[in-house]
Amino acid sequence: MRQAKNRIAELEGILREGGVRVTRQRAAILKILAEAEDHPDASELHRRAKEIDATVSLSTVYRTLSALEQQGVVQRHAFENATARFETADAPHHDHLIDIETGAVIEFRSDKIEQLQAEIAAELGYDLVRHRLELYCRKRKD
Amino acid sequence: MRQAKNRIAELEGILREGGVRVTRQRAAILKILAEAEDHPDASELHRRAKEIDATVSLSTVYRTLSALEQQGVVQRHAFENATARFETADAPHHDHLIDIETGAVIEFRSDKIEQLQAEIAAELGYDLVRHRLELYCRKRKD
DNA sequence: ATGCAAATGAGAACCATTTGCAACTAGCTA
DNA sequence: TAGCTAGTTGCAAATGGTTCTCATTTGCAT
Ligand SMILES: [Mn+2]
Ligand SMILES: [Mn+2]
Ligand SMILES: [Zn+2]
Ligand SMILES: [Zn+2]
Protein backbone atom coordinates (compact mmCIF):
# COMPACT_ATOMS: atom_id res chain seq x y z
CA MET A 1 0.00 0.00 0.00
CA ARG A 2 2.83 2.36 0.86
CA GLN A 3 4.24 1.36 -2.52
CA ALA A 4 1.06 2.25 -4.35
CA LYS A 5 0.65 5.56 -2.56
CA ASN A 6 4.14 6.61 -3.51
CA ARG A 7 3.54 5.60 -7.04
CA ILE A 8 0.33 7.57 -7.24
CA ALA A 9 1.92 10.63 -5.65
CA GLU A 10 4.71 10.34 -8.15
CA LEU A 11 2.33 10.15 -11.07
CA GLU A 12 0.42 13.16 -9.77
CA GLY A 13 3.73 14.99 -9.53
CA ILE A 14 4.46 14.27 -13.16
CA LEU A 15 1.11 15.71 -14.10
CA ARG A 16 1.61 18.92 -12.10
CA GLU A 17 5.05 19.28 -13.69
CA GLY A 18 3.40 19.05 -17.06
CA GLY A 19 0.95 21.80 -16.12
CA VAL A 20 -1.90 19.33 -15.87
CA ARG A 21 -4.24 19.90 -12.93
CA VAL A 22 -4.80 17.02 -10.57
CA THR A 23 -8.54 17.02 -10.17
CA ARG A 24 -10.64 14.74 -8.03
CA GLN A 25 -11.57 12.78 -11.14
CA ARG A 26 -8.03 12.45 -12.41
CA ALA A 27 -6.81 11.34 -9.00
CA ALA A 28 -9.42 8.59 -8.99
CA ILE A 29 -8.53 7.41 -12.46
CA LEU A 30 -4.85 7.53 -11.66
CA LYS A 31 -5.34 5.44 -8.55
CA ILE A 32 -7.29 2.84 -10.48
CA LEU A 33 -4.63 2.71 -13.15
CA ALA A 34 -1.81 2.44 -10.64
CA GLU A 35 -3.51 -0.41 -8.85
CA ALA A 36 -4.65 -2.26 -11.96
CA GLU A 37 -2.89 -5.51 -12.62
CA ASP A 38 -4.62 -6.07 -15.91
CA HIS A 39 -5.22 -4.08 -19.10
CA PRO A 40 -8.63 -2.45 -18.63
CA ASP A 41 -10.43 -0.54 -21.35
CA ALA A 42 -12.04 2.88 -20.92
CA SER A 43 -15.41 1.65 -19.78
CA GLU A 44 -13.90 -0.78 -17.29
CA LEU A 45 -11.75 2.04 -15.91
CA HIS A 46 -14.89 4.14 -15.71
CA ARG A 47 -16.68 1.43 -13.77
CA ARG A 48 -13.80 1.16 -11.31
CA ALA A 49 -13.19 4.89 -10.99
CA LYS A 50 -16.83 5.54 -10.14
CA GLU A 51 -16.36 3.50 -6.98
CA ILE A 52 -13.91 6.13 -5.79
CA ASP A 53 -15.63 9.18 -7.22
CA ALA A 54 -19.13 8.65 -8.52
CA THR A 55 -19.06 11.87 -10.51
CA VAL A 56 -16.44 10.69 -13.00
CA SER A 57 -17.89 10.64 -16.49
CA LEU A 58 -16.81 8.44 -19.36
CA SER A 59 -15.80 11.55 -21.32
CA THR A 60 -13.42 12.48 -18.55
CA VAL A 61 -12.00 9.00 -18.49
CA TYR A 62 -11.21 9.31 -22.17
CA ARG A 63 -9.86 12.84 -21.82
CA THR A 64 -7.73 11.86 -18.86
CA LEU A 65 -6.35 8.81 -20.61
CA SER A 66 -5.34 10.97 -23.57
CA ALA A 67 -3.67 13.47 -21.25
CA LEU A 68 -1.87 10.72 -19.34
CA GLU A 69 -0.78 9.12 -22.58
CA GLN A 70 0.61 12.42 -23.79
CA GLN A 71 2.51 12.81 -20.52
CA GLY A 72 3.97 9.38 -21.10
CA VAL A 73 2.37 8.05 -17.92
CA VAL A 74 0.00 5.67 -19.61
CA GLN A 75 0.23 3.41 -22.60
CA ARG A 76 -2.58 2.60 -24.98
CA HIS A 77 -2.93 -0.75 -26.71
CA ALA A 78 -5.19 -1.54 -29.65
CA PHE A 79 -5.42 -5.31 -29.74
CA GLU A 80 -7.20 -7.13 -32.56
CA ASN A 81 -10.85 -6.10 -32.91
CA ALA A 82 -11.25 -4.83 -29.39
CA THR A 83 -11.61 -1.48 -27.70
CA ALA A 84 -8.43 0.30 -26.60
CA ARG A 85 -6.86 -1.00 -23.40
CA PHE A 86 -4.56 0.84 -21.02
CA GLU A 87 -1.79 0.34 -18.52
CA THR A 88 0.63 2.56 -16.65
CA ALA A 89 3.91 3.05 -18.45
CA ASP A 90 6.17 2.64 -15.44
CA ALA A 91 6.92 -1.03 -15.96
CA PRO A 92 9.84 -1.89 -18.23
CA HIS A 93 8.94 -2.43 -21.88
CA HIS A 94 7.20 -5.66 -22.74
CA ASP A 95 4.97 -7.08 -25.44
CA HIS A 96 1.76 -9.09 -25.20
CA LEU A 97 0.42 -12.53 -25.86
CA ILE A 98 -3.36 -12.69 -26.22
CA ASP A 99 -5.28 -15.89 -25.60
CA ILE A 100 -7.76 -15.90 -28.48
CA GLU A 101 -10.18 -18.13 -26.60
CA THR A 102 -10.34 -16.33 -23.27
CA GLY A 103 -9.03 -12.88 -24.15
CA ALA A 104 -6.44 -13.16 -21.40
CA VAL A 105 -3.42 -10.92 -21.89
CA ILE A 106 0.02 -12.18 -20.88
CA GLU A 107 3.13 -10.02 -20.85
CA PHE A 108 6.53 -11.12 -22.07
CA ARG A 109 9.79 -9.66 -23.19
CA SER A 110 12.44 -10.92 -25.55
CA ASP A 111 15.63 -8.92 -25.69
CA LYS A 112 16.57 -10.84 -28.80
CA ILE A 113 13.47 -9.76 -30.61
CA GLU A 114 13.87 -6.21 -29.39
CA GLN A 115 17.36 -6.13 -30.82
CA LEU A 116 16.44 -7.79 -34.08
CA GLN A 117 13.75 -5.21 -34.65
CA ALA A 118 16.22 -2.36 -34.31
CA GLU A 119 18.59 -4.14 -36.69
CA ILE A 120 15.91 -4.63 -39.29
CA ALA A 121 14.90 -0.99 -39.14
CA ALA A 122 18.54 0.05 -39.44
CA GLU A 123 19.10 -2.20 -42.44
CA LEU A 124 16.20 -0.52 -44.16
CA GLY A 125 17.62 2.92 -43.40
CA TYR A 126 15.30 3.75 -40.51
CA ASP A 127 15.45 4.51 -36.81
CA LEU A 128 13.01 2.44 -34.80
CA VAL A 129 10.77 4.78 -32.80
CA ARG A 130 8.29 2.29 -31.37
CA HIS A 131 6.78 -1.01 -32.30
CA ARG A 132 3.88 -3.29 -31.71
CA LEU A 133 4.26 -7.01 -31.21
CA GLU A 134 1.28 -9.15 -30.34
CA LEU A 135 1.05 -12.93 -30.31
CA TYR A 136 -2.44 -14.34 -30.74
CA CYS A 137 -2.39 -17.81 -29.28
CA ARG A 138 -4.39 -20.80 -28.17
CA LYS A 139 -3.53 -22.71 -25.03
CA ARG A 140 -1.51 -25.79 -25.94
CA LYS A 141 -3.37 -29.00 -25.37
CA ASP A 142 -1.27 -32.09 -25.01
CA MET B 1 0.06 -8.97 -67.61
CA ARG B 2 -0.21 -12.68 -68.30
CA GLN B 3 0.98 -13.15 -64.76
CA ALA B 4 -1.72 -10.92 -63.34
CA LYS B 5 -4.45 -12.54 -65.38
CA ASN B 6 -3.53 -15.97 -64.15
CA ARG B 7 -3.43 -14.70 -60.62
CA ILE B 8 -6.84 -13.14 -60.91
CA ALA B 9 -8.29 -16.25 -62.52
CA GLU B 10 -6.81 -18.28 -59.72
CA LEU B 11 -8.30 -16.06 -57.06
CA GLU B 12 -11.69 -16.23 -58.76
CA GLY B 13 -11.34 -20.00 -58.76
CA ILE B 14 -10.74 -20.02 -55.04
CA LEU B 15 -13.91 -18.03 -54.56
CA ARG B 16 -16.04 -20.33 -56.68
CA GLU B 17 -14.59 -23.29 -54.78
CA GLY B 18 -15.68 -21.63 -51.57
CA GLY B 19 -19.17 -21.21 -52.94
CA VAL B 20 -18.70 -17.49 -53.32
CA ARG B 21 -20.13 -16.01 -56.49
CA VAL B 22 -17.85 -14.04 -58.74
CA THR B 23 -19.87 -10.97 -59.56
CA ARG B 24 -18.91 -8.04 -61.75
CA GLN B 25 -18.18 -6.00 -58.62
CA ARG B 26 -16.09 -8.69 -56.99
CA ALA B 27 -14.12 -9.23 -60.16
CA ALA B 28 -13.31 -5.53 -60.25
CA ILE B 29 -12.25 -5.44 -56.63
CA LEU B 30 -10.23 -8.61 -57.03
CA LYS B 31 -8.41 -7.18 -60.05
CA ILE B 32 -7.56 -4.01 -58.17
CA LEU B 33 -6.30 -6.01 -55.23
CA ALA B 34 -4.24 -8.34 -57.40
CA GLU B 35 -2.61 -5.43 -59.18
CA ALA B 36 -2.07 -3.28 -56.09
CA GLU B 37 1.52 -2.91 -55.04
CA ASP B 38 0.65 -1.00 -51.90
CA HIS B 39 -1.71 -1.45 -48.95
CA PRO B 40 -4.87 0.45 -49.89
CA ASP B 41 -7.76 1.01 -47.51
CA ALA B 42 -11.43 0.42 -48.34
CA SER B 43 -12.14 3.86 -49.73
CA GLU B 44 -9.01 3.83 -51.89
CA LEU B 45 -10.01 0.41 -53.22
CA HIS B 46 -13.46 1.80 -53.87
CA ARG B 47 -11.98 4.71 -55.80
CA ARG B 48 -9.88 2.35 -57.94
CA ALA B 49 -12.59 -0.24 -58.43
CA LYS B 50 -15.03 2.36 -59.70
CA GLU B 51 -12.71 2.95 -62.65
CA ILE B 52 -13.38 -0.62 -63.76
CA ASP B 53 -17.01 -0.82 -62.74
CA ALA B 54 -18.65 2.46 -61.79
CA THR B 55 -21.50 0.72 -59.99
CA VAL B 56 -19.37 -0.71 -57.18
CA SER B 57 -20.55 0.68 -53.88
CA LEU B 58 -18.49 1.15 -50.75
CA SER B 59 -20.75 -1.33 -48.95
CA THR B 60 -19.85 -3.96 -51.49
CA VAL B 61 -16.17 -3.16 -51.16
CA TYR B 62 -16.42 -3.83 -47.44
CA ARG B 63 -18.53 -6.92 -47.89
CA THR B 64 -16.21 -8.28 -50.53
CA LEU B 65 -13.14 -7.63 -48.43
CA SER B 66 -14.69 -9.51 -45.54
CA ALA B 67 -15.57 -12.41 -47.81
CA LEU B 68 -12.10 -12.48 -49.32
CA GLU B 69 -10.55 -12.32 -45.90
CA GLN B 70 -12.65 -15.24 -44.76
CA GLN B 71 -11.56 -17.22 -47.82
CA GLY B 72 -7.97 -16.45 -46.88
CA VAL B 73 -7.42 -14.58 -50.11
CA VAL B 74 -6.96 -11.18 -48.55
CA GLN B 75 -5.30 -9.95 -45.41
CA ARG B 76 -6.48 -7.04 -43.30
CA HIS B 77 -4.09 -4.79 -41.39
CA ALA B 78 -4.99 -2.32 -38.67
CA PHE B 79 -2.00 -0.05 -38.36
CA GLU B 80 -1.75 2.57 -35.63
CA ASN B 81 -4.66 5.01 -35.71
CA ALA B 82 -5.52 4.49 -39.33
CA THR B 83 -8.31 2.85 -41.29
CA ALA B 84 -7.93 -0.83 -42.15
CA ARG B 85 -5.65 -1.58 -45.07
CA PHE B 86 -5.65 -4.63 -47.30
CA GLU B 87 -3.42 -6.79 -49.47
CA THR B 88 -3.69 -10.13 -51.21
CA ALA B 89 -2.51 -13.01 -49.10
CA ASP B 90 -0.62 -14.85 -51.80
CA ALA B 91 2.79 -13.43 -50.97
CA PRO B 92 4.81 -15.28 -48.33
CA HIS B 93 4.32 -14.02 -44.79
CA HIS B 94 5.96 -10.75 -43.91
CA ASP B 95 5.61 -7.95 -41.39
CA HIS B 96 5.56 -4.19 -41.86
CA LEU B 97 7.64 -1.14 -41.15
CA ILE B 98 5.66 2.11 -41.19
CA ASP B 99 7.35 5.44 -41.82
CA ILE B 100 5.67 7.65 -39.22
CA GLU B 101 6.42 10.81 -41.20
CA THR B 102 5.20 9.77 -44.63
CA GLY B 103 2.95 6.82 -43.84
CA ALA B 104 4.91 4.66 -46.28
CA VAL B 105 4.65 0.93 -45.58
CA ILE B 106 7.67 -1.28 -46.16
CA GLU B 107 7.58 -5.06 -45.98
CA PHE B 108 10.18 -7.21 -44.33
CA ARG B 109 10.63 -10.67 -42.97
CA SER B 110 12.86 -12.06 -40.27
CA ASP B 111 12.92 -15.82 -39.90
CA LYS B 112 14.70 -15.36 -36.60
CA ILE B 113 11.91 -13.26 -35.20
CA GLU B 114 9.30 -15.63 -36.57
CA GLN B 115 10.99 -18.49 -34.79
CA LEU B 116 11.50 -16.61 -31.54
CA GLN B 117 7.83 -15.78 -31.42
CA ALA B 118 6.85 -19.42 -31.65
CA GLU B 119 9.35 -20.26 -28.94
CA ILE B 120 8.03 -17.61 -26.61
CA ALA B 121 4.47 -18.79 -27.07
CA ALA B 122 5.56 -22.37 -26.44
CA GLU B 123 7.41 -21.40 -23.28
CA LEU B 124 4.24 -19.80 -21.98
CA GLY B 125 2.26 -22.94 -22.78
CA TYR B 126 0.61 -21.66 -25.93
CA ASP B 127 0.47 -22.41 -29.64
CA LEU B 128 1.06 -19.37 -31.78
CA VAL B 129 -1.89 -18.92 -34.12
CA ARG B 130 -1.02 -15.57 -35.69
CA HIS B 131 0.79 -12.44 -34.76
CA ARG B 132 1.19 -8.80 -35.52
CA LEU B 133 4.55 -7.09 -35.76
CA GLU B 134 4.79 -3.48 -36.81
CA LEU B 135 7.82 -1.21 -36.65
CA TYR B 136 7.03 2.51 -36.48
CA CYS B 137 10.11 4.30 -37.73
CA ARG B 138 11.62 7.55 -38.88
CA LYS B 139 14.02 7.73 -41.79
CA ARG B 140 17.57 7.82 -40.51
CA LYS B 141 19.26 11.12 -41.13
CA ASP B 142 23.03 11.07 -41.11
C1' DA C 1 -34.51 -20.06 -70.41
C1' DT C 2 -35.99 -20.54 -65.40
C1' DG C 3 -35.71 -20.37 -60.45
C1' DC C 4 -33.89 -18.99 -56.42
C1' DA C 5 -30.32 -18.23 -53.07
C1' DA C 6 -26.78 -15.06 -53.00
C1' DA C 7 -25.31 -10.40 -53.82
C1' DT C 8 -26.07 -5.46 -54.59
C1' DG C 9 -26.85 -0.17 -53.74
C1' DA C 10 -28.52 3.18 -50.76
C1' DG C 11 -28.90 4.68 -46.64
C1' DA C 12 -29.67 3.85 -41.75
C1' DA C 13 -27.53 1.90 -37.75
C1' DC C 14 -23.66 1.01 -34.88
C1' DC C 15 -20.47 2.19 -31.40
C1' DA C 16 -16.04 3.55 -29.56
C1' DT C 17 -14.20 7.84 -29.16
C1' DT C 18 -14.18 12.92 -29.59
C1' DT C 19 -16.02 17.44 -29.17
C1' DG C 20 -18.94 21.83 -28.05
C1' DC C 21 -20.60 24.28 -24.42
C1' DA C 22 -22.11 26.23 -20.06
C1' DA C 23 -21.20 25.38 -15.35
C1' DC C 24 -17.46 24.25 -12.09
C1' DT C 25 -12.94 24.41 -9.67
C1' DA C 26 -7.70 23.87 -8.86
C1' DG C 27 -4.41 26.49 -7.56
C1' DC C 28 -2.05 30.98 -8.11
C1' DT C 29 -2.65 35.95 -6.56
C1' DA C 30 -3.31 39.82 -3.67
C1' DT D 1 -8.49 33.70 3.11
C1' DA D 2 -11.24 35.38 -0.71
C1' DG D 3 -11.00 36.12 -5.53
C1' DC D 4 -9.71 35.30 -10.14
C1' DT D 5 -9.28 32.76 -14.25
C1' DA D 6 -7.80 29.37 -17.34
C1' DG D 7 -8.20 24.56 -17.17
C1' DT D 8 -11.63 20.89 -16.41
C1' DT D 9 -16.01 18.69 -16.10
C1' DG D 10 -20.68 16.43 -17.33
C1' DC D 11 -23.85 16.11 -20.68
C1' DA D 12 -25.32 15.56 -25.04
C1' DA D 13 -24.48 15.77 -29.69
C1' DA D 14 -21.15 14.81 -33.35
C1' DT D 15 -17.88 11.88 -35.63
C1' DG D 16 -16.35 8.40 -38.82
C1' DG D 17 -15.10 3.89 -40.14
C1' DT D 18 -17.56 -0.14 -40.64
C1' DT D 19 -21.66 -3.08 -40.58
C1' DC D 20 -26.38 -3.98 -41.32
C1' DT D 21 -31.25 -3.78 -43.41
C1' DC D 22 -34.12 -4.38 -47.09
C1' DA D 23 -36.10 -4.06 -51.57
C1' DT D 24 -34.25 -5.18 -55.95
C1' DT D 25 -31.05 -7.50 -59.03
C1' DT D 26 -28.23 -11.30 -60.68
C1' DG D 27 -25.04 -15.47 -60.95
C1' DC D 28 -25.31 -19.85 -62.20
C1' DA D 29 -26.91 -24.76 -61.52
C1' DT D 30 -30.51 -27.31 -63.68
MN1 LIG E 1 1.22 -4.81 -20.50
MN1 LIG F 1 2.26 -6.35 -46.85
ZN1 LIG G 1 8.75 -5.07 -27.63
ZN1 LIG H 1 5.76 -12.10 -38.92
UniProtKB/TrEMBL annotation, chains A, B:
Subcellular location: Cytoplasm
A GO cellular component annotation in the UniProt record: cytosol
Gene3D superfamilies, per the entry: 3.30.1490.190, Winged helix-like DNA-binding domain superfamily/Winged helix DNA-binding domain
One GO term (biological process): negative regulation of DNA-templated transcription
SUPFAM superfamilies referenced in this protein's UniProt entry, alphabetically: Winged helix' DNA-binding domain
Cofactors: Mn(2+); Fe(2+)
Keywords: Cytoplasm, DNA-binding, Iron, Metal-binding, Repressor, Transcription, Transcription regulation, Zinc
Residue stretches spanning the membrane: none
UniProt: Fe cation binding residues: 93, 95, 114, 131
Pfam families hit by this protein: FUR
One example GO MF annotation: transcription cis-regulatory region binding
Main location: cytoplasm
InterPro entries: FUR, Fur_C, WH-like_DNA-bd_sf, WH_DNA-bd_sf
Cofactor annotation remark: Binds 1 Mn(2+) or Fe(2+) ion per subunit.
Highest taxon, organism lineage: Bacteria
Family per similarity comment: Belongs to the Fur family.
PANTHER family in the cross-refs: FERRIC UPTAKE REGULATION PROTEIN, ZINC UPTAKE REGULATION PROTEIN
Subunit composition and interactions: Homodimer.
Protein name per UniProt: Ferric uptake regulation protein
